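Hey team,

Filing this mostly as a record. A colleague (T.K.) asked me to run one chain through the structure pipeline before their review meeting, and I want the input and output archived in the tracker in case anyone asks later how it was produced. No errors, nothing strange. Just documentation.

Input sequence:
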Amino acid sequence: MVYDVVREIAQALNLEHLMILQSKIETMARNQFDEKLLLFMEDFTASALQAFFQSENKKFQEKADSHFFEDHISRNQLQFALEIGNHKNDPNFGMQQGRPLFGLPVFWEISLDNFQIAAPLKKICQGALVKMMKEENAKPFILSYLLRSISQIQKNDSVVTSINISNTILSQFPSDNSAINEEP
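Output structure:
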């Protein structure tokens, strides 16, 4: 009941207030997390990422070049791919760009095999992370999570979760070169 009220209020908050709410959630001990909080965080993260994405779009539209944030992200992803060798040693690279991640780091942390939590709660986090990676608003982060997943697989840690996340991310890219050859 309380989470439902906070969820409704969160949808009306601006980005700054959403970030304040997120910082409060981040300070909670992970052993205090329960099913209701994790489900709230899933909805909250989706709403907050959408608010962030819309805020960034507005900023880009107000600039003289009037490029959309989506275009900026596409350029960043291309640059990221071109410099993949530099990022291989630091899977957290994409996380260091000052973008709010909301519940994504919590879902990632709890999804890993070495995090001790009840299986149903871990499953909620894994499902939320996979779901978030499919969202348009997660574009700024997907390559970083792909590298994190690959790193986990290479270490033979959290392999199944990492493969699920990797597959989810990779399924969003074209399966052939047709998208590369298209005219802008």
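Quick notes for T.K.: DSSP finds ten helices and no strands in the chain. The mean pLDDT is 78.
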